[in-house]
Structures are given as C-alpha cells and as structure tokens.
Protein 1
Amino acid sequence: MQLKRFAMVAIWGLLVLAGIFVVVRFTGLIDQILPAGDPPNYTFDPGAEVPQGNNFFIACPDRLAPKTGRHMQSPVFDAAASTLADLLIETAPAHGMTLMRGANGAKPGKLYFLARSPVFHFPDWVEVELVLPETGNEVTFCMFAQSVYGSEDLGQNEKRTRAWIADVVARMGQAG
C-alpha cells in the first residue's frame, strides 16, 4: 500500500513538473530566464586565447586560427563579400539561428547570430567576420560559436557550424 501511494505521488509530481516546463518553455518565459547577454566579440588571431571549456567551435582560415583542436578550415568562395553575407543570413534560420543586427555596435563585415537549443532553449552566440581578399575575388570568413551557459556543449556548436557551412558551400556552388 505504501509503495502504491509513493508511486502515485511521484507520478503526480512528474506531471506537475512537466506542466511547468511546458508553460515556461512554450510561452517564451525561458528566453527571459536564460538571457543571451552580449556576444563574445572574439578576436581571430593565432595568438588569441580560447575558452577553457568545451563549449565553443571555430571555423577560420588556418592563418587566423588560434591553437585549438576545436577548429576547422573555413571555405573560400569566388564571390563578392555581400553575396556571402546575404547567403549566411538567408541560411541561418534553417540552422536555428536569428540574425541580431547591431549587437554591441557591430562593425561592417561582422554578423552576430543567436542560436537556441531546441528543447531547453539554451542560448549560443555565433559570430561571423568576413575576411576580404588581399588580391583577387576570393572571400572567406571566420566563425566563432560559443554557448552562453556551461563549459560543455556536447558538440552542438561544432555540429551546427559544420552543417551550416555545408549548406552555404552547396548553395554557393549552385549559384557560382
């Protein structure tokens, strides 16, 4: 009898917690509970410090990449910087990101995106800096994706970054 009563209380408790989660998650309250704050404004340089935790990922040309294992080479495109920027902005929503214009006084050639995890809506900042060619028409970018909360992201920033870049490469190939 005692075990049956405990099971009923546990089930009701779980239902109440699930109801609270649904209300908080789907009414937008969780975005207020977990604010994104300001973007990181990362400096892309081989000597730049990287975060201590495993909650970031960098895509950058090797000449600008810091020393870290959480890095990939960014692709180079034979296109105008504005074309690449437009395509990054166009494809971002398909990867769960929203463009945040003017964040921290964004300078030209820098884009800031806010991504939120699907279930719990934890915020991640994704910073993109276009790298213009010294000569010719080849343009590339540096990208820094970092979770706002926690020191581990279970590989989500890397997964999102790689998928987004693959999407951009596929579309730029079709366009050019």
Protein 2
Amino acid sequence: MKIRPVLADTGRPAGSAVHLLNAGWTATMALPLPIGGWTLPDQALTVFVDAPWDQLNKLHMLVIELIDDEGKPAYFTPGPSNDGPEARIQHQVVVPPVPGAPNGTPGTTTVFLDMPMGTLWIAGPGHRYIWRITTGDVSEEIGFWVQAPPQSPVIGTPGSMQTPGQ
C-alpha cells in the first residue's frame, strides 16, 4: 500500500477524481476562537490510497490524526477543555480494481476530508502541525506551519495609540 496526502484550501470529489483549489500549501494562519484556543482556516485533506493487486477489494482501516511538532494532538472544536475529541478519524476504505485493466494492475482510491474554518482546535500559532495517515504498517505524513495572524497597525505616537477608523 502507498498513501499520498495532499492539502488544499478547498475541494470536492468528482467521481474517482478530486477537484482541489490551492493544493500543496505548506503554511497557514491561526485564527482565534471566541471560546479560547485557535482554529485553522478552511482546509481539505485528500488522501490517495494505492493498493497492489492482492490488496484490492479488501477492507483497509485508515487512521488520520492531526498532531503538532511536539506530538501533542489537535482537537475538534470546542477543544480539550470543553470535551472536544482529539482530531483523529478512523475510516474504512476499499480500493477497487481499475475497470477493464488486466489482472495484476494496482488500484487507487481517494479519501476526501473537508474541514471548514472552526472545525479544528489548536493550542496556538508558532507550531508545525502534521496530518499522519496510517493503514496497517504503512504511514505517511504531510505537515504545515501555522503562523500568528498579522497585528493591526497602530497609528500615532505611543501616547495617543489610535487604530485605523477611530
């Protein structure tokens, strides 16, 4: 088995293919949550699963989890202090044979996960986060850096401290 994850801003399945927008990014920005903690902008994780001939039409369990660069889990909102579960998904997948292909031809299938902004809870920016995908003894990762949002500019001298629009 081979696993090939791809990150994108958004996407949608299209039969045996996947349409992705802004695929392949490696950095994003954290956004504060009103309940505390941080979240991530919209993201779509697509996992291409390749299987050799002898593994086609068999049930395979994928474990998909989001961890930070220290191995700590991310969570689904509302986060760990509000009983939000760890960002860990178990998904069963069957890789079908390629229609009309001769015996021995490997197959591919896709798993598409759409995570709108606010779905994931992270401790904060300034970390690298890693999607780890595992099936059996095969594991693959795709990581991305999370930076802090830009600060609003301060206009005036330190004594007047006005922000734009005031």
